[in-house]
């Protein structure tokens, strides 16, 4: 949860809350949300509800994503959340999930970039959006990304602010679901290779490279990643003993730097990763599956630098709501939340 107040063209964080609940644990195997996962999640949501009431948040958006989309008991879970916490969660489409991630990353778009690939590695799914900014003036490219409507565009040439979506995909594999699919493979190197191969197989319908010859203009191509995986790899590269968003958000990593971190993560083994302060115990188990996804993307679309975004759905919702209310240009007080 992120609660914020508008502050010029951005926002000021008032309060935040994060808890690893692993709602989708066992979903790949059973097709349903487990009782322990539901209880962990509802306890965390009760904390969120308490904070929303205490701070008298007037504008909010509360969303559920892939785990609830896929689970056979997803609707039942949402009803239980409403009954036990008073929170009404909105089950959003993959296109909306990707749109919010793209909006959150808009401030990181380099004005010199004509082609931008934004990806978000979640727990249950991974969204990729390829954006063509060739026809957008350099000074207007960030605003054009903010205005993209993913659902209304898909290989149809429609334009929003003169930016064009070349392709979009939501792969129903994230760090948790990919981990569960191959957790019975004991050899970690073999498991990593299988996860990477399997994820690449799911990208067969995402073919923007057939429309744009990226490799002839690498300088104009930018890749931005938003997810716990990407920020954890960045923190590990920086050797942070305690995570610091200010040092991670907005930095760039080379493919060589990322490869070095991934190689070290695999060599550490489960116990080594759990003891590594730059990874943390919560992410130690799932960072390998996330790294397999990340490495696959960098192998398919080589780039000399990856932009790291410590932002995602929450920041995208806040920017979207504040923009819609006209609050970003004139912050006169009051509390907004997301």
Task: Describe the overall structure.
By secondary structure, the protein is α/β, with parallel strands linked by helices. It is built from 14 helices and eleven strands. The chain folds into two domains: 2-93 and 314-337, 2-Layer Sandwich (Nucleotidyltransferase, domain 5); 95-312, Nucleotidyltransferase, domain 5, CATH 3.30.420.150. The protein has helices at residues 27-30, 35-54, 66-70, 74-85, 94-105, 141-146, 175-181, 188-201, 228-238, 245-248, 255-275, 281-284, 287-300, 313-325, and strands at residues 2-7, 10-16, 63-64, 90-91, 115-121, 126-132, 164-171, 221-226, 252-253, 306-309, 336-337. A six-stranded mixed beta sheet has the order 7-6-5-8-10-9, sandwiched between helices. Strands 2-1-11 form a three-stranded antiparallel beta sheet, with helices on one face. A two-stranded parallel sheet has the order 3-4. α5 (94-105) packs across α14 (313-325). The protein is globular and about 55 Å long.
Strand order of the largest sheet: 7-6-5-8-10-9
How many domains would you count in the coordinates? Answer: 2
How many alpha or pi helices? Answer: 14
CATH topology of the largest domain: Nucleotidyltransferase, domain 5
**Beta fraction of the residues?**
15-25%
Largest β sheet strand count, sense and barrel closure: 6 strands, mixed
* DSSP strand count: 11
Euclidean distance between termini CA atoms: 7 Å
Q: From the 3D coordinates, which CATH architecture of the largest domain would you assign? A: 2-Layer Sandwich
Shape: globular
Helix content: 40-55%
Taken in chain order, the helices and strands follow as EEHHEHHEHEEHEHHEHHEHHHEHE
Rg on CA atoms, Å:
20 Å
Which whole number gives the mean pLDDT? 87
Can you identify the CATH superfamily of the largest domain? Exopolyphosphatase. Domain 2
Give start-end ranges of low-pLDDT stretches. 154-161, 330-336
Q: Give the CATH class of the largest domain.
A: Alpha Beta
Question: Structural class, from helix and strand content?
Answer: alpha/beta
């Amino acid at each position: 949860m992120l609660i914020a107040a508008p502050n010029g063209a951005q926002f000021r964080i008032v309060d935040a809350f994060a808890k690893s609940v692993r709602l989708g644990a066992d979903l790949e195997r059973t097709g349903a949300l487990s009782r322990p996962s539901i209880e962990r999640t509802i306890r965390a949501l009760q904390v969120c509800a308490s904070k929303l009431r205490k701070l008298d948040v007037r504008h909010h958006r509360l969303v559920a994503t892939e785990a609830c989309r896929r689970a056979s008991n997803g609707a039942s879970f949402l009803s239980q959340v409403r009954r036990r916490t008073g929170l009404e969660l909105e089950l959003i489409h993959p296109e909306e999930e990707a749109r919010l991630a793209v909006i959150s990353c808009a401030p990181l778009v380099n004005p010199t970039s004509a082609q931008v690939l934004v990806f978000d590695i979640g727990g249950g799914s991974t969204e990729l959006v390829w954006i063509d900014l060739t026809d957008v003036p350099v000074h207007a490219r960030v605003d054009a990304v903010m205005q993209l409507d993913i659902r209304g565009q898909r290989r149809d040439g429609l334009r929003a602010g003169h930016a064009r979506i070349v392709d979009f995909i939501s792969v129903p594999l994230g760090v948790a679901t990919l981990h569960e699919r191959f957790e019975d493979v004991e050899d970690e190197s073999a498991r990593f290779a299988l996860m990477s191969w399997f994820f690449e197989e799911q990208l067969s319908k995402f073919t923007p490279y057939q429309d744009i010859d990226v490799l002839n203009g690498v300088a104009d191509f930018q890749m931005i990643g938003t997810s716990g995986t990407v920020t954890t790899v960045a923190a590990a590269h920086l050797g942070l003993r305690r995570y610091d968003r200010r040092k991670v958000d907005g930095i760039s990593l080379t493919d060589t730097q990322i490869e070095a971190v991934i190689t070290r993560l695999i060599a550490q083994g489960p116990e080594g990763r759990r003891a590594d302060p730059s990874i943390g115990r919560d992410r130690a188990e799932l960072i390998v599956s996330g790294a397999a996804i990340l490495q696959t993307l960098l192998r398919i679309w080589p780039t000399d630098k990856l932009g790291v975004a410590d932002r995602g759905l929450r920041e995208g919702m806040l920017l979207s709501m504040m923009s819609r209310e006209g609050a970003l240009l004139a912050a006169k007080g009051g509390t907004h939340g997301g």
